[in-house]
Amino acid sequence: MLIEDRSKLTLTPEMEKVINDGQRLLTYIARNGHVSIDESVAQVIVKAKHKMQAGLWSAEDETQFLMCYDQLAKSVHPVTVDSIHAIIPTIDPKSTKPQRKRTRAEQAVIWYRRGTMCALIGLLMVQVCYLFGHALNANLLHLDEQKQQLKMELSQAKQVANRPDVVERLADKIAMTEQQFDANYKLLANWNRLWTLGVPLSHSILPDDEDAFATRDSGASTTNRE
Question: pTM surpassing 0.90?
């Protein structure tokens, strides 16, 4: 009796987990039926649980179990205990009513879907903002060309005698176009702050461009006074 007590081992939590994992792997094989295992291996795995519960665990049992567990794990590869735990649902013990808990695989799918949806919404918002800014920029260029064209027509109309009605109509169109240009420019500036996070972009004008801009601005002022 003393010899039997000395041969007994105290199961560690890690060993108890391995025995339970062996049961889970064996159950998975029995459910799917895609893999066949040796009967002696199945007997060792099944008896290990009962010996653990009865407290009849020895060094020989542990050695035999680990060898059989190694064969069992190799036979179901690439399936592992972690992958089985990830797809098999469990019951929430904290719930007052029997309620099925989501598996880790289901939780991962849910998070992937949420992440994909957030990414699509973000990309859609960026695309809408980009198209809005692109339309503002294109409209700004179109208004500038239209304004220059109207100024040329106004200059030609002034050279023709007895056409005050045409001059007045062109001057009104220029004033309206400049108002639209200014409004469009303000919208474009606000759109630009969105991309630069509120930091204004520094800009510089070349001397030739600056002189041309000053001349054009003074010409526009003269036209408005007339």
Answer: no
